[in-house]
Amino acid sequence: MAGAGGRPVTKLGTWLQQRRASVLERWFELVIATYPPESAAFLRGERDRFANPIGSTLRRELPALFDAVFGEGDGEEARRAVAAVIRLRAVQQLSPAAAVSFVPLLKRAISQELGAEEGARAAELLTLHAQIDELTLAAVNELVECREQVYRLKAQEARAQVHSLLRRAGMLVEAGVTDDGKGGGGE
Amino acid sequence: MEKTREELLQIDFKPPAKSWMDPHIDFEARRGSWSYPGAPKNLRYMGYPNPREWSPTDADWKLPANWKQIIFEGMRELLSKYRSFKVFMDICVRCGACADKCHFYLGSGDPKNMPVLRAELLRSVYRKDFTTAGKILGSLAGGRELTLEVVKEWFYYFYQCTECRRCSVFCPYGIDTAEITMMARELLNLVGVNINWAVEPIANCHRTGNHLGIQPHTFKDNIEFLMDELEEVTGVRVEPSINRKGAEILFVVPSADYFADPGIYTFMGYLLLFHQLGLDYTLSAYASEGGNFGLFTSADTIKKLNYKIYHEAKRLGVKWIIGGECGHMWRVLHQYMDTMNGPADFLEVPKSPFTGTVFANAASTKTVHICEFTADLIRHGKLKLDPSRNDHWRVTFHDSCNPARALGLFEEPRYIIKNVCNAFFEMPENTIREQTFCCAGGAGLGNDENMEARLRGGYPRANAVQYVRDRFGVNLMSCICAIDRATLTTMVEYWAPEVKISGVHELVANALVVDGEKERTTDLRGQPLAGKEDKAHV
Prior knowledge:
The structure holds 2 protein chains of 2 kinds.
Chain A: H1 12-18, H2 20-32, H3 37-45, H4 53-70, H5 75-89, H6 96-100, H7 105-114, H8 122-168
Helix pairs in contact in A: 2-4, 2-7, 4-5, 5-8
Chain B: H1 5-8, H2 40-46, H3 67-81, H4 83-91, H5 103-108, H6 115-130, H7 132-137, H8 148-158, H9 166-170, H10 177-190, H11 196-208, H12 216-234, E1 249-252, H13 263-277, E2 281-283, H14 299-316, E3 320-323, H15 328-340, E4 367-369, H16 370-379, E5 395-397, H17 401-406, H18 411-420, H19 451-457, H20 459-472, E6 476-479, H21 482-495, E7 500-503, H22 504-511
Parallel strand pairs in B: 1-2, 1-3, 3-4, 5-6, 6-7
Helix pairs in contact in B: 2-11, 3-4, 3-10, 6-10, 8-10, 13-22, 14-15, 16-18, 18-22
């Protein structure tokens, strides 16, 4: 990839497209390593979507995220892919930092792939790292949203338990409105 | 010292490698993945050992001074009482066929959620103290000392098993891993380590007849209230039959069906069907619970709670029993009832009064699943159905674990749904029928403090739901278990909020053409029917 003077001849974006498969594999391995080591072989090896939900989610969404950032995709698609992974990691008893770590781990995968060439690409990497930082922050937003939803779901279950009591006791008087604020039917 | 670039990129969240034999659990850090302990009032009511206030986050779990002796003696007794337990402890060759089949493992990646390793937590103690090799070789033979940390680890992991038995389907030796969990829970129960979401329903069920502690007058009131709602939708007044001696059939349902959304619509469905048929049935305000949380606590409790249903059948003088859309009720009925309380020879072999079909499969328990009963009616053309009244639903079917794996009830619910709905879509085959994925809320784990474990354990099921939602536009998952209806509702809200949850008989009632009904403009939920949006007053 390097020219005669040791300078890169292709733009980083093009180079990443060429090395897509290899970078993705490195990235996937780094993310898998955030799970217990005993599970790595299974999460990596089983390709059936329904037999291996964690592994297949990562195999689907990491490439989608990569392509959204470096290829044809757009910001919306990148955020969707980040959200799909975070939704899972938000309920896996990972620390918040560990839960979002899969995004910045992409920097490491790229760095590993670049090897000695990294220094020559410093300027381009600045831009790329800024893009990944932005995605990391998007992941934080998604994580907080998921965690808040978990607590909302807990509260909702508790409320549902008393809801029928309230309804039976005739304490819900406003027709068509349930106590979760949504328009309910049959009240 | 300045960090090198390589060091700066070292974002390291690799979990530390530790031996599986290390039992330590940080309960504080793992809130969201364990259930609150049994309240002392419930333990006292049931006469269970060691009632006290405690929390898993406490260093001292206030076990009896001789806790170790109690557990060893308990294990000795269980090993001599149940040959199956002894065989399951000895026979596993750790082939790993079960390892990647548990929904908790598939959603977490935590190796101790592998059924083989979860069982090994108990088996290692058995091996150390009950086998010759283990006594001599200790950890070299896979033996492990029983310590307080091990008891805490048992509590954590044996209450991360829903006894769904998916792993057992894949075991070449036929080890029933749920029974290993049941044995571990029996042992924990001996020293007062259990969960409130199991022991409170048990205590309530024992006293008032159902998990929620609903007394007879409230039982009647609530059912009449549901009949009011049903009348609004159908224009038909259904008179429920309760505690009526001499009825032909006792009808037993899970209590959530007459008390909680969305089960109440299924309950309305049952009673509308019976009304249209003119079935000679009665509900019992005491046998007012199909569920049997004894299954999640102790064999003695299973037996007691199961006996209550047959006692009521005898008292009311019925001939046979129909059971509602309940899950683990069928594990108890089909696999334990007969040896515990059966045969129910004071009852008659069930025979449908409308089709003449004899349910020979229920010749001993005398209890027929309502889906068997209804599918038989449809097969004989006894019901007038208008499936277009479910056209606002695109339906998939979740095989509830126990009716599927314990009762083998695969086809009847599907047959019913296909007759009462026009749009039915299967989830992928390795997620349905005997390979169905659990809701992750069974066996007492469907409580809100355990929400994170439920949500990640629910991901294997949700992953298949997302697939049929995206591929076929599925917006309803039907199922035949009350715990499913309660916990899947929350689970899909997290993973696939476009999809709602229902029972099968809710769909039956939507389609069922009833004598004297008004033009239906809404379904039982009060949602407008397809093409009737302008007529529905919601």
